[in-house]
Write a structure and sequence with these properties.
single chain; about 425 residues; alpha/beta; Rossmann fold; eight-stranded mixed beta sheet; five-stranded mixed beta sheet; 9 helices; about 25% strand; globular
């Protein structure tokens, strides 16, 4: 019986096959969805990534079938997380190679509809003996108390000066969020990051380069080390430092960065929201007055598909950011893309050190049953109807494990370089 069903599916998936009782694309789409349902029955707790190579993965989907596939794939992914990662959350430790990242979390308040918020709080210390960072980790566990959510303090895997912005942190935090969304019912649109001292250094770095993960961020008593704030366009950012915290010019540089945020907001009033406090008369320790940032942050939720995206690569590079991406292995430091979506048109207003850009779309953003265009500098780079496919759904979910950053369709365009000066 199973062979007969598969033969029927194959006949529908092959271009030009089948009867014309209803539109062929609808028949093939339905067959692809059926193929996914059959895979769910035989694939118990396995990763979803392998589905991208199935014959049905490239079949164009109708809007309704894409929505059903999105739900089924999210369920499959969650099943895999529960089957393979429950122990790392139970044991409160993540591992990557020889690195380990223990973490502590405590729950506050009642769980809202839609899931709990998550507050990742990074300790100070840095380039110091392990026992110093251990002590800072213990202190961070009880430093703040959000009104609601999981308050989580990780212990940095290393004892280097840049312990919170080495490249492995991005990967470990992505995995941590992915685990807690499934295993602790965290709302992926209400994940916050904060840190004190060396942890504040980490916020300056991680908030921009992982901006599409955060609902808001709070930097306490840290130093930016020259990082660009451009990618914070859609992340409300709290910046606090003691007015007398002169070590490494934290007070002076903090004030300068606060002014940068103010200027960015003036130039782009729909973005770069900030909460800046230079706490006069205080040194490196702000006597917990900096906890004022938490209720301010809690007012915000992440928009995973903002209409305008500013992507400036700093520090560890990434090959995707909100609904933009670059081909695997092509992410380049200090590159910049500014893209905006209005109706069915995407406009690339800036492109530096990026040759090819991938634009990811779904029916939250545009009507995929109608033509979409991409323009740069008045030149049309693409016009057409990107197809919803299982492959794009699978690859975008498997890559980040974030169901809100899962897309139905994608297109790639070759960009023009910046105009000569």
């Amino acid at each position: 019986m199973r062979v007969t069903v598969w033969l029927l599916l194959a006949s529908l998936l092959l271009p030009g096959a089948g009867r014309a009782a209803k539109p062929l694309d609808a028949e093939r789409s339905a067959a692809a969805l059926k193929g996914l349902e059959m895979e769910m029955q035989v694939s118990k707790g396995t990763p979803i990534g392998g589905l991208a190579t199935k014959d049905f993965a490239t079949v164009p989907l109708t809007r309704a079938d894409a929505a059903k596939a999105r739900q089924l794939l999210s369920e499959m992914h969650a099943r895999h997380i529960r089957a393979t990662r429950s122990a790392e959350v139970k044991n409160r430790v993540l591992k990557e190679g020889e690195l380990t990242m223990p973490f502590f979390f405590k729950t506050f308040g009642d769980k809202p509809e839609g899931g709990r918020s998550l507050w990742i709080s990074m300790h100070g210390g840095g380039g110091a003996p392990p026992q110093v960072n251990d002590s800072q980790y213990e202190n961070q566990k009880k430093l703040y108390q959000p009104a609601e959510g999981l308050y989580l303090a990780p212990r940095a895997p290393t004892n280097t000066w840049n312990l919170w912005h080495e490249g492995h942190i991005d990967r470990l935090f992505t995995r941590l969020i992915e685990d807690l969304v499934v295993l602790e019912d965290v709302n992926p649109d209400r994940v916050y990051v904060m840190g004190y001292s060396a942890g504040g250094d980490g916020v300056y770095q991680l908030a921009p380069r992982m901006a599409d993960s955060w609902a808001a961020a709070a930097m306490m008593a840290g130093h930016p080390n020259g990082v660009s704030l451009l990618s914070l366009r859609n992340v409300p950012f709290a910046l606090q430092v003691g007015g007398n915290d002169s070590a490494y010019n934290r007070n002076k540089v903090g004030k300068e960065y606060g002014e940068q945020l103010k200027k960015l907001h003036q130039e782009d009033p729909q973005g770069y929201q900030s909460f800046v406090r230079i706490r006069e008369g205080m040194g490196h320790w702000m006597k917990l007055e900096d906890k004022e940032a938490l209720p301010w942050m809690a007012k915000f939720s992440r928009n995973p598909i903002p209409s305008r995206v500013v992507w400036k690569q700093t520090g560890a590079t990434h090959d995707r950011f909100y609904w933009l991406a670059v081909p695997k292995g092509k992410a380049e430091g200090d590159s910049l893309v500014v893209a905006e979506r209005l109706g069915q048109k995407i406009t690339i207003s800036k492109a530096e050190k990026v040759a090819r850009l991938v634009v990811r779309l779904d029916d939250r953003m545009v009507n995929l049953d109608e033509p979409v265009s991409v323009e740069q500098g008045g030149k049309v780079l693409y016009t057409g109807r990107p197809q919803r496919t299982m492959r794009t759904l699978v690859e975008t979910l498997a890559d980040r494990g974030d169901p809100r950053l899962m897309f139905d369709a994608e297109l790639a365009v070759d960009l023009q370089g910046p105009a000569p000066q």
